[in-house]
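Example 3.
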Amino acid sequence: MADTGITFVRIGEFAWTRMEPQPVQFDWAWLDRAIETLGAAGLKVVLGTPTATPPRWMADRHPDMFAMDRDGRPRGFGSRRHYDFSHAGYRAECARIVTAMAERYGRNPHLGAWQTDNEYACHDTVLSYSPAALSAFRDWLSRKYQSPQALNRAWGNVFWSMDYDSFDQVGLPNLTVTEPNPAHVMDFRRFSSDQVGSFNRLQVQIIRAHSDAPIAHNYMGRVTDFDHFKVGADLDIASWDSYPLGFLSDRIEATEEHKAHFLRQGDPDNQAFHHDLYRAVGRGRWWIMEQQPGPVNWAPWNADPLPGMARLWAWEAFAHGAECVSYFRWRQAPFAQEQMHAGLLRPDSAAAPALGEAAQVARELTAMPDAGTCAAPVALVFDYESAWAWETQPQGHDFDYFRLVTSVYRGLRALGLNVDILPPDVTDLSAYRMVLVPGLATISAPLLAALTTYRGRALVGPRTNSKTADFAIPVPLPPNLPGLDCTVARVESLPPGIEVPLQGGGAIRHWHERLDGAASPALVAQDGHAVAMTAGPLTYVGGWLDETALGDLLRKTCQEAGVAVTDLPPGLRRRDTATHRFLFNYNPTPVSFDGITIPTAGVHWSPL
Ligand code: GAL
């Protein structure tokens, strides 16, 4: 590892049965030796708490510690993440093992960082319909509303005679005859997210009492089941697990043609989006905790990366400000669930192709130790609650918040722009010339105040500010933005293949609003009705724009905002750091741009 240029090694994150083979009988000898061995070679250790994999004996101590699915069935033992965030007994066991680890290793000189648990939410593990969750949910509701009458009013329970006389009558929003009240579902989503936050906080507080090493968690890609900004507020570093080919195959909606073209390179915007998102979650400090080094085992199809991609992905992360890129995993494990998952070494310990690329990046980094970040001209607001809102009430089958926001992100990146992602309670927009707020269910008071005095250009909508905090339709009707005489008079969702063509080119898909008001039309449908309206710095966009319409609107708005844009060739992406301009070629062929030819899977950088 040291010869390859590796400096950090993460260990321990699933090793509970080795640390505590039987209840309260610890065996630290192997871990002491591992940390000593790594440290003696000059490597820093990232120590994971093993709470994502409780041992089998734990299930005997706490038979009801398993989360329950929507049908009320407990999830079983035999893989991982088999616990309920609300189970008090399991939380106490986590506190016990984390305390033992923190006491033993908190001041170890070879400790570089901590990782809490592993990938909260992975394998659909945030929502649980268990008795433990029910009881904690009732407590959460009683703290929030204080009286059942207040809850009834907030949820609108008079509709269908759903009023409650006590918090003990409130159930979980599963197994209802038809859809549950969306306000009930939204509170359950908020509660479930808060449970992840308090579960993580418990570990953080224990570790901090014994250690000064920074604490991270490894988030996943395209996971919106809990509010990462809230969990991130308790941590020092945000990290995420980047599997570009797994994600392309598994969790990106794209045409077959797109998936075939990028099969061995990954989607050109997906990694960058998450880098920018987690830079925001980490308040500037972020890592890749797991980087795909070859074919993985878990996607529908598991392609082999093109030679050079492991290097490209690492450099792209550094150009977006990553402090560390760590590969998963060192050696391919010949047994159990992930035996088909590549590592930097093969199962026989011979080098796998990515080992040389990791070594190359390590050498290159010595010449450019700090890629740094620089101020972006454009910001995009991302909000986890809005993802829950539109899952709870999509109104059109394919209305997906993550896809809406990332479609806007793609449009910005195709114009060569650096983008910062902002949380929904941002108070100051003045650093940005342009701000985008698509699909934000409720505009927070601080963001509304910031928009009121904003001097750049803001593109807001569709669906933005269309719900109150209690998930009702606000009156005055949306978007209700300061100084913008524009009202959403009617909304409709559109099935695939149906579009509303716009004057000047492009169209609206998926979601279409009819706007009333005296503000100036900024986009007009071919039949003459306004679908976007402008006044001063604000433009409200009443529909989900296709690539053409979005590109045109972004170019026009950038020009008004004084933001220089460049139409990049497809599959080529650009990122400026404080000192350099980077180009990343995601195409399976070389690409020429600006007088430079960037080879297949190539990275090019030049001083700014
Ligand atoms: C991550 C996880 C790792 C490993 C990896 C396989 O989701 O954190 O433990 O399972 O995926 O790609």
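The CA atoms of residues 480 and 487 lie 7 Å apart. Residues 572-607 form one domain.
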